[in-house]
Amino acid sequence: MHWVFDTEMNTVNSKVKLKPHIIVSGLTMAYGDFIIQRDLNFTINHNDIFIIMGGSGCGKSTLLRHLIGLKSPAKGQIYYGDINFWDAGPAERSRIMRKCGILYQKGALWSSMTLAENVALPLEEYTDLPNPAIKEIVSLKLALVGLAGYEEFYPSEISGGMQKRAGLARAMALDPEILFFDEPSAGLDPVSARRLDDLILELRDSLGTTVVVVTHELASIFAIGSNSVFLDAETRTMIAQGDPHMLLAETVDPKVKEFLTRGKTVSAETFSGWKE
Amino acid sequence: MLHLASVVPEQKDSQQKKKRQPFIYVVGQNAVLFATSTVQMLGFIGEATLSCWNFLLGKARFRRIDLLLFIEECGAESLPIVTLISVLVGLILAFVGAVQLKLFGAQIYVANLVAIAMAREMGALMTGIIMSGRIGAAYAAQLGTMQVNEEIDALKTMGISPMEFLVLPRLFAMVLMMPLLTLYSDLLGIMGGAIVGVGMMDITVVQYLTQTQATLDMANISLGIAKAGIYAIIIALSGCMRGMQSGRSAAAVGEATTSAVVTAIVGIIVTDGIFAVLCDALGI
User: Fold this and answer.
1) A138 assigned to some structural domain
2) Within the 47-86 window of chain B, which residues sit less than 8 Å (CB to CB) from chain A?
3) ipTM
């Protein structure tokens, strides 16, 4: 697939390199009175693979729900390009979301429909393609995620990992400009997780997709991340942002360091505690 | 080990939740909760009405095949249980009536009693209660599980209204099938009455049927069918609403299912009461 796009994408790449795609400014997220995170400010550029990371319960998935229009912010703005996402009406939001694909944590395939029908639904809704063409695209997308031949299966008839991949095929159905992943490697074996990482990189490079990934999987973070934000549950705000490799090398914040080194600082202390 | 327990500091306001509240506070909180849930219910009904309007304008989107599947589920597949219950209700009514009417030597009026009771009340009521358990609960469980699996989120972010895609076909299937099932239930109830009348009280089949025919008029039957249509809306909407409001856990889906059946049955009985008063006032 990727030789088709190679030449034109390279030129596009250099042009759009640092164009902001999503801007989050002063975002505060809350459930009722309970504040999850406050004062989030970051920019996701075109062609980024942007990682939202942090410990469990820090609000990563909640942040994602704000970005994809499922939960409105308590305060602050989210801009898609120049458009204020939450001030624009529902019609405008839905128009923006049409250019986004989302892979949910458990795949979220519609259980009453076969894999082919799942992938075909967005195409039927938003394109005028004739049925044979849709069928061809569906087969191609399923083949891309390694599920060729599974068109007529129902989600309950395949394994969790396969459901997740089928979910990705559905997210890619409309060739989205932005792909959101919620914990992509959760529940996948190491090899499948690695393949998914490769697929994410491939999508970014060949189609110029902007990718936003919510994860705490260190291997994935370092393998694919080009920019990131670190959410902290304790102080309820972001405490670091930037390329994960740079963060690892440069950060002085003990929490970020602990996270990115898989808690080495903690275990050292623990061991010294044991010696006493 | 002790050190491990103290590595992660305690989250201060996580304790707040468990604090005991004074009685007055709990009462107030429940009152507020009741108010918000009423508002939510009205909101849901409003949204459903808008979706129906969209459907009439030809803008609503759902899969035709879904509608057919739901029609099969609540129509054809409900026949056995509706048959059983209706015949038994007819039998019971006839027995109750027979004992009293025998005192006056007016056994033949069992036919009147059964026919009027089935057509006006019991046909629609019993079908409604069966369907709340069979279909209302199923709808709540289906939509609740879809909520847990993020399937409803997936629809929303795809720009497809869950109200149109999930609720409308379920609602339409119920509204189409309930009146038919009620008619069927009326018929079988009358048959049940006839079994008692003919089998135990020297009434001939022809006598029984003529008597029934003489009593039943269109007003009685259409009143039952009109009720059935309204019950169908109550059952389908309460099932779908509780399912959509469900939390994201297995326990929450269970609660949603229970709550759907309770809401539907309460709704049906209250509506029936209102109908009874209205019919009396209007002389129907």
Assistant:
1) no
2) 61, 66
3) 0.82
